[in-house]
């Protein structure tokens, strides 16, 4: 890996981590557990747009691990990991399937699967089907937040490409 790319990915990790930690201090946007803006997912989507799946996934895992350590919320690690991996997998598949188009739709699908991953983690950890009660509201919020984060990531990627980020370093389809 080239030094410039390593530094750039380190910067994106720091940005994602900062957003993740800052968002953990925001008051809930709804009285329903689990509904957050998911602003750190902008970085995951942005890296898919600018670089490749491997780089995006690496930064995602680092953000989840370090974010859980920095916020002191060990239990949230499992929810974040389950949601983050589900989100990433579906975004990576559909980003490739759509050949880099429909980024906002890809982000919305990612948000939906992030919430599904977290619900799956809650079912395993809490062993209570009562968490499924939140599913319809979580899906609605995912569509809204996924649309927003997709718009932000797409806008940022266009600006960053003009500044020379990503394109010359984009490596095939890892």
Layout of helices and strands:
Layout: H1 3-24, H2 41-50, H3 53-71, H4 74-97, H5 103-126, H6 135-162
Helix pairs in contact: 1-2, 1-3, 2-3, 2-4, 2-6, 3-4, 4-5, 5-6
Description:
- Helix 1 packs antiparallel against helix 2 and helix 2 crosses helix 6.
- The protein has 6 helices and no strands.
- With 174 residues, it is mainly α.
- The two termini are 14 Å apart.
- The C terminus is likely disordered.
- 73% of the residues lie in helices and 0% in strands.
- It is globular and about 50 Å long.
Notable traits:
single chain, 174 residues, mainly alpha, 73% helix, globular, disordered C terminus
> How large is the radius of gyration?
16 Å
Largest sheet: none
Order of helices and strands: HHHHHH
N- to C-terminal distance:
14 Å
- What share of residues are in beta strands? under 5%
- What overall form do the CA principal axes indicate? globular
Uncertain parts? 169-174
Residue-averaged pLDDT, rounded?
Answer: 90
Number of continuous helical runs: 6
- Say how many strands there are: 0
Class per helix and strand makeup: mainly alpha
Brief summary:
This protein is mainly alpha-helical and 174 residues long. It is built from six helices and no strands.
């Amino acid at each position: 890996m080239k030094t410039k790319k390593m530094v750039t990915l380190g910067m994106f990790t720091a940005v994602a981590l900062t957003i993740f930690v800052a968002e953990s201090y925001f008051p809930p946007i709804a009285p329903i557990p689990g509904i957050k803006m998911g602003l750190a997912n902008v970085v995951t989507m942005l890296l898919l747009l600018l670089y490749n799946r491997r780089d995006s996934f690496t930064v995602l895992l680092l953000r989840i691990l370090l974010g859980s350590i920095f916020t002191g919320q060990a239990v949230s690690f499992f929810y974040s990991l389950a949601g983050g991996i589900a989100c990433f997998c579906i975004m990576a598949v559909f980003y490739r399937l759509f050949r880099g188009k429909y980024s906002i739709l890809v982000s919305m699908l990612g948000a939906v699967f992030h919430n599904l991953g977290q619900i799956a983690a809650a079912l395993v950890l809490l062993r209570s089907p009562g968490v499924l009660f939140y599913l319809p509201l979580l899906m609605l919020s995912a569509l809204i937040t996924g649309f927003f984060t997709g718009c932000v990531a797409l806008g940022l990627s266009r600006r960053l490409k003009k500044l020379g980020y990503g394109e010359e370093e984009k490596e095939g389809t890892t």
